[in-house]
Amino acid sequence: MKEKIEFELNGKKVNVELDKSQTLLWVLRTYFNLTGTKYGCGEGYCGACTVLINNEAVRSCATKMGEVAGKSVVTIEGLAKGDVLHPVQKAFVEHDALQCGYCTPGMIMNAVGLLNQNPNPSREDIIWGMEDNLCRCGAHNRIIDAIQTAAGEINGGK
Amino acid sequence: MKPEEINRYYFSDVNSPPGVNRRDFLKKLGGGIIIVFSFSAYTVVNGCLQKKEEEEAGDVPEFNAYLRVKEDGTVDCYSGKIEMGQGINTSLSQILADELEVPFESINMIMGETSLVPYDAGTWGSMTTRFHDPLIRAAAAEAREVLKELASEKLQIPVSELKAQDGKIISINNPKKNISYAKLTIGKKIVKGLGEKIPLKKPGEFKVIGKPFFRRDAVEKVTGVAKYTADVKIDGMLYARIVRPPAHGSTLIFADTSEAESMEGVEIFREEDFIVVLHSDPEAAMLAADKVKAEWKIPDAKADDETIFEHIKRTAVDTNVRYKGGDLKKGKKESAIIVEEEYHDGYKAHASIETHAATAVYNNEKLTIYASSQTPFGTRQAISERYSIPLENVLIKQIYIGGGFGGKIYDQQAREAARIAIKKEGTPIQLMWNRQEEFMYDMFRPAAVVKVGAGMDKTGKLNYWNFEIFCAGDRGTELFYDIPNHQTTVSDGPEVHPFGTGAWRAPGNPSTTFARESHIDIMASKINMDPLEFRLKNMNNQRALNSLQLAAKSFDWNKELPEGHGKGIAVGEDAGTLVTVMVEVKVDKSSGQVQVIRAVVGQDMGQVINPQGTIIQAEGCVNMGLGYTLSEDVEFNWKTVKSKNFDDYQITHFSTVPETIETVLADAMDQPPQGGGEPAIICMGAAVANAVFDACGARVFRMPVTPERVLAALA
Ligand code: FES
Ligand code: FES
Predict the structure, then answer these.
(1) Which residues pair with B78 in a beta bridge?
(2) Beta-bridge partner residues of B33
C-alpha cells in the first residue's frame, strides 16, 4: 500500500508516495536518480549500496523505506560540499584507491560511517570496519591507506 | 568475433594481434591533422609500418584507430579499446602527450563507442599495451612530423632546424621563432597513414612516458557521477527481469504467469521459454518475476565439484603436443629422482562487483545499446546477425565498466536486452542481472587438471619434464627452465564442462603455473635445496632470471622468519611479461588458517609506460589472486550452480590482503612494452602453496588452499 514517506535526503527534505516495504537502494536509484549507490549483491554481502542513515553506514539494499521515514539519508552524491571533496573522497583520489570504481561509492560511505564512530581507527580497526565491503579489482591496500590519511586530516585539520 | 575464437586467442600464447579491418570512417570528421593507423599493418620490427600503396591509390588506408590534432591545438585519440579500471585511458594519453609534445591534459581519449571509433576486436588478452601502444606512439610521432613540415613552410626554416615543444614548433636556433599547433592546424584537414620511417623518441628523451600518473577518472568515480550501464535512465524505460531455470540445459514443462500479470503495472514478454517480466519499477519487476510459477526438467547429473577432476580426465581426450624437446623416455630413465603428481583447480567466477547489464532501445529500425562490454564491436556484430539489423543500425554506447577480468566479453545480457527491445519497439529496456544470475551465467574459468612428472640427477639438475594439461590451455607454458627432455600436452574436449567457461584474467595460466611452480618446489625439497637456488640453477631465460632476482632482493629471501611463518616463490610468464611473486605467510597449525603477511612482485615487462598504473595492476593481481588461491571455488552439482552469492563464493576481503605489496620492475625502457594487467595473478596459487609448505610441511595439491586442505595435508 502506498503512503507518504518523508525523510531528509542529502540535506533536503523530501517526500515520496511509496509502499513502506520498498527498498531504499532501488528507490534512490529509480525515483531520485541517485545512481552512485550501486547494486552488487542485494543481500548485504558486498557493501556497494552503502549509504549513511543518521550518520551511520547502512546497506541500502537491506533497508526498507519504512525504516527511513523521518531520518536523514546521505548518499555519495551528497558528500562533497559543492566542488570541495569530503576528506575521504579526496584521500581516495590522492591514494589512487580505485580501479573500475564500482565499489568506490560504497567504500567511501562505509569509511565515512566508520570514521563517524571511530575518528581515530588503527589499521586493524579499518580492516575490520571495512571487512564486508568487497572490491574485485583489489584496491584494498590503497583504500586502507586512504582512510588513514582521511582520519588524519579530519582530526588534525579544520 | 565469436566466443570460441576469443577463447582461442585467450588460452594460447598470442604473439601477433588478430587482423581487423575497417575503412572509410573519416568523412564525418572535422578539420585538423588526422593520422590513421591499424593493427593489420603492424610490425614489431623497429616500430611500425603502414602500407603506402593505398594512400597513393587515393584511397584511405585501413585503420582501426586514429588521432586528430584539432584546430584548437588539443588532441583527440579515438580507439576501440575500452577502459574498465585497468587504466589504459591514462597510459595511452601519456604516450601521446610525450611523442606529440603536448600537455597531458590536452589529450582526450575517446574509447569503445561503435559510432565514434573504428572497429576493434575487443579489450582482452593484455593486448592493448603490447600491440596498441607502439602504434599510438608512431601516430603521434607522425603527426608531430606533419606539424613540423607545416611550420617549416610558415616560418621559412628547414625542418631539420625545428623541434616540437609544449604544443608548439619552435626554431632550435632562435626559440622566439615559433608557432603553435592551433595556428598550424586551423582551416586544414590533412589525413595521413603512418609513414615508413617515423623518428620515435629514444627512451632517454621521454618526458611523460615512464613517469607515474594517477588515473584520470578518479574524481568522477569518488563523487558517484561516473555512469555505468545500469545508471542510464531513459524516459519511459521498463526494467526487465527474466524468469530463469534452476540449472543450465533445463527444459520448461509449464509456466503460469497469471499471478504476476495481475500485479499492477506488470507486462509479460514471452517467447517460448524466454519469459520476461517488465515494470517501470525495478523492484516491482523482481517481485512479479518471483510470482511466475514455472516447472523445469533439469538434466541428469554427471559430476559435481568433487568428482569433476575424474570427469575431466575421462572426457578431455583431444590431446595436442604443444612443446617438445629431447626424448622423454630417455630423460626419465636417466633421472636419479623422479616425482609424479597431479594438481587440481576448480571453477572460478569473474565476480566483478558490477553485474552484467544492458540498456537497449529500438527506434526507427535503429538499435542503441548501452552495455558493460569488453567487446563492443563483437557485440554489435552478433546482434546485427542474430536479429538481421544492418550493422550500421546497431549502435553500442560505451560507458564505464565495473570490472571485466574477461567476464564481460560474451555479452549474453546485451543480446537478451536487444531481444526484448526489438519486440517492444520504442520502449527502452534495462536489464541488470542479479548476483544469482551472474553466478549462473558467468563464463567460468574452467576447472583443470595438470599431471606433472619430473626427473633430475642427484645435484638437482632437471632432465625430464612431462607436463599434461587438461582444460587450461597452453598460455604461458613455454618452459623457462633448461630441461633437455620435455613435453607439454594440452587435452580438452567439446563437452567436458557442465556450463559455460571462458577467459578469466590470464586464462588457464593460474592453473598451470600452480602446477609447474608447486612441482618445481617439490623437486627442490627432495634434495633439500633452497627453492630459490634450485630455480637459479635450472633457469635458462634471462628475463625470468631478472624478475626472480629483483623479487629476491626486495623480499630479502634469506632473512630468518618467525616460527610458524613460511615463504614461497612462483615464477611465470604471461602476455610477454616474466614475473616472480614471493610471499610470506603465517599458518595456524591448529585451524589450518593461512594469512599472507607480505608479497613482492618482480616483473620484467619491457618498457613501462605508467609505473603508477603498473604497480596498481600488480597489487590488484595479488589481492584478486588471493581469492582463487585461498577461498574461491564454484560449488555445483553438474548443471546446477550452487554458489549463488558472495556468502558461498568468498572473494578477497580486507582481512585477506597482505599488509604490504611491493612491486619491482626491471629497467627495460629500451625493450618493447608487454602486458601488465594480468601477469602477477598467475603466480599467487603456487607462491602461497609453497609458502604454506615452508611454514608447516603441508603440501596442498588442489586450489583453493583452504584450512581443511591444509589440515588434511598435515595429518
Ligand atoms: S548490494 Fe547491498 S550489500 Fe551488496
Ligand atoms: S575498484 Fe573495481 S571493484 Fe573496487
Answers:
(1) B66, B110
(2) B69, B190
pTM for the predicted model, two decimal places:
0.89
**Cβ atoms B642, B648 nearer than 8 A:** yes
Q: Return the closest-CA partner of residue A110 out of A144, A67, A63, A70.
A: A144
How many C-beta neighbours within 10 Å does residue B336 have? 12
* Best B216, B220, B223 residue to mutate vs chain A (most A CBs within 10 Å): B223
CATH architecture of A2-77: Roll (3.10)
Is the same domain home to B292 and B364?
Answer: yes
- On whether the CB atoms of residues B367 and B395 are closer than 8 A, the answer is yes
Amino acid letter for position A53:
I
> Distance, CA A50 to ligand 1 centroid (Å)?
7
Query: How far, in whole angstroms, is CA B57 from its chain's centroid?
Result: 39
Q: Are B43 and B49 in contact (CB under 8 A)?
A: yes
Question: Residue B534 is which amino acid?
Answer: F
SS3 category, B569: strand
Distance A120 CA to ligand 1 centre (A): 26
Which residues, other chains included, contact B306 with Cβ-Cβ below 8 Å and sequence gap of 6+? Answer: none
Q: What angle do CA B510, A100, A119 make, to 5 degrees?
A: 110
Set of chain A residues whose Cβ sits within 8 Å of the Cβ of B657: 138, 140-141
Residue B368 shares a structural domain with residue B320 = no
CA atoms of A62 and B451, how far apart (whole Å): 46
SS3 B643: coil
Interface contact A99-B86, CB threshold 8 A:
yes
> Which one, of B15, B11, B16, lies nearest residue B474 by Cα?
B11
* d(C-alpha B356, C-alpha A10), whole Å: 29
The three-class DSSP label of residue B418 is: helix
How many other CB atoms sit within 10 Å of the CB of residue B569? 30
- In a 3-state reduction of DSSP, which class is residue B705? coil
Q: CATH number of the domain at B331, please.
A: 3.30.365.10
Neighbours of B567 (CB within 10 A): 24
Mean pLDDT of all residues in B287-305: 96
Cell of B243: 524468469
Coil, helix or strand at residue A35? coil
Q: Are both B79 and B209 inside the same structural domain? A: yes
SS3 content of chain A, % helix, strand, coil (to 5): 40, 20, 40
Residue B271 above 90 pLDDT? yes
CA atoms within 13 A of residue B61's CA, in its CB half-sphere: 25
Q: Give the integer Cα–Cα distance in Å for B482 and B542.
A: 12
A26:B624 CB<8 A: no
From the options 3.30.2350.10, 1.10.10.60, 1.10.150.120, 3.60.10.10, give the CATH code of A87-154. Answer: 1.10.150.120
DSSP letter (8 states) at residue A52:
E
pLDDT tens column, B157-210: 999 999 999 899 999 999 999 999 999 988 888 887 777 677 888 888 888 888
Residue whose cell numbers read 598470442: B14
Partnered with residue B660 across adjacent β-strands are B598
* Distance of alpha carbon A46 from alpha carbon A106, whole angstroms: 9
Quote the pLDDT of residue B85.
60
ipTM exceeds 0.85: yes
- CA-nearest residue to A40 within chain B is B353
Cβ atoms within 10 Å of A115's Cβ, excluding its own: 21
Q: Which three cell numbers stand for residue B90?
A: 591514462
